[in-house]
């Protein structure tokens, strides 16, 4: 599950089982899980987003994509289309960079989100 709903246990019987338990936990953490990409488990991103959308009762989905993350850019447009069509949730994709705001300055990101919310989300 997502957002701390998963209760992990650690098998403490041997060092190997403890390491396996920790590896299993890390494998399913959000960033680690998602970085594997959409081809490792088709539908994984959509299932996670659908769960979050339901749990959080979201009004929209906004993707801030770091330009160097080829894993996500390879499938984000398809993902956003699925979110809009299957969940009925409006989506916005913004090109950004976590460390370098020359890609898209923060005021521009804020303006894009405000415009999206005002023209698409709040109708």
Describe this structure in words.
- InterPro entries: FldB/FldC_alpha/beta (IPR010327).
- This is 2-hydroxyacyl-CoA dehydratase.
- It comes from marine sediment metagenome.
- With 123 residues, the protein is mainly α.
- The chain has 2 domains: 1-35, no CATH class; 44-121.
- Helix content is 52%, strand content 10%.
- The protein has 6 helices and 2 strands, in the order H-H-H-E-H-H-E-H.
- The protein has helices at residues 15-27, 30-35, 44-56, 70-73, 76-87, 106-121, and strands spanning 61-66, 91-96.
- Strands 1-2 form a two-stranded parallel ribbon.
- The longest helix has 16 residues, at 106-121.
- The two termini are 33 Å apart.
Structural class: mainly alpha
Q: Can you summarize the main beta sheet?
A: 2 strands, parallel
Number of domains: 2
Provide the succession of SSEs. HHHEHHEH
What does the overall shape look like?
globular
Enumerate the spans where pLDDT stays under 50 for 5 or more consecutive residues: none
Number of helices: 6
- What percentage of the residues does DSSP assign to strands (E)? 5-15%
Cα-based radius of gyration, to the nearest Å: 17 Å
Protein name: 2-hydroxyacyl-CoA dehydratase
Provide tags for this entry:
123 residues, mainly alpha, two-stranded parallel ribbon, 6 helices, 2 strands, globular, FldB/FldC_alpha/beta
The gist of it:
With 123 residues, this protein is mostly helical.
